[in-house]
């Protein structure tokens, strides 16, 4: 197993190697049982299976090799962090572990119980020293998106270097101006770690690399969800790829996603679908689904439906927009373009955030989906409150929607499956009734 080979490195960066190996063993077993056993998977998934086996091993060695050359290693919890700048500096920008249940008990020794599991899980990983990404990070880049995260940085800063980016909660002119300044400051922090100045040309190169990554993910999203009769890849596999987009080397990842897309193109032409005809096609909305949180996708695809996209940050919100660098001549122009791109993110932390609702309705129509599941992590107030506005708009359009609030514990898996089954039954009943009425 990968972690065994890199034991010395893991230990040198402060990972609790025994506990870490145990957790990785459980994670890999879960992946093998839940993913690798799926029938008729695209052959190109072999790369992502390999990546999973090396997720906390070979990839960690790569990141630490960059660090040895004074390249920055930045850990994040949010898609507002401009990874283009880190990549431009030759470094690695990665998402930190925060999707597992076991570290939560440790986190609750310092954090209140009633905050979202993503924050508690990530905090617990740091206390336990069981996330090799967190241990590799020169610093963690936090943001002021939600109340719980904002205050957690103050505590997390006692355990690991943390910088915080001030993300406004409105998008007025004065807010955007401040945002642009924050991006500039981020670049200065990267220069501090790298101990050198970062040129405009390097940053533009970073933008090109990340734009290409987003293009590949958009391509996958289209192939996966835009063909009503053919689903050439399971929702579970596609979600896993989105999750890995925050960890893998961006150039290699782009190449591998494009290879997979080439195969999916052929599958679509040959009408090779991993689900039978008339399988209900479900869109998932809401909070990020961080690995190894595969509970919802397992319940839905284990109940005879297919998930055709995730609207959240581990999904469409992350790759929907590129940075336009056409004609950029100065650093200030680039910061402005970055700000313009990042301020298109329709996170529920903004008020108002009506663009998100309109986008969801349009996405549903474009994909000819059959229903929507609004998934929110417990105690995530912004997405929870916004679910009311979104479901109201969906109801007006006659779009079937199920709201699920959950955490990382395995206890509600059975209950979720029962609710999903009932929802799917109501969708198929409606479809049959429509066919009957049209006869
Ligand atoms: S851009 S969604 S990644 S903030 S931590 S808000 S789940 S209570 S993660 Fe997010 Fe950036 Fe927005 Fe996306 Fe809720 Fe939990 Fe807060 Fe969370």
UniProtKB/TrEMBL annotation:
* MF GO annotations: lyase activity
- Assigned EC number: 4.2.1.-
Checking NCBIfam families in the record gives:
double_cubane
- In this record, what's one Pfam family? HGD-D
Entry keyword set:
Lyase
Regarding protein family, the annotation reads: Belongs to the FldB/FldC dehydratase alpha/beta subunit family.
Instruction: Extract the InterPro entries matched here.
Output: FldB/FldC_alpha/beta, YjiM-like
Q: What is this protein called?
A: 2-hydroxyglutaryl-CoA dehydratase
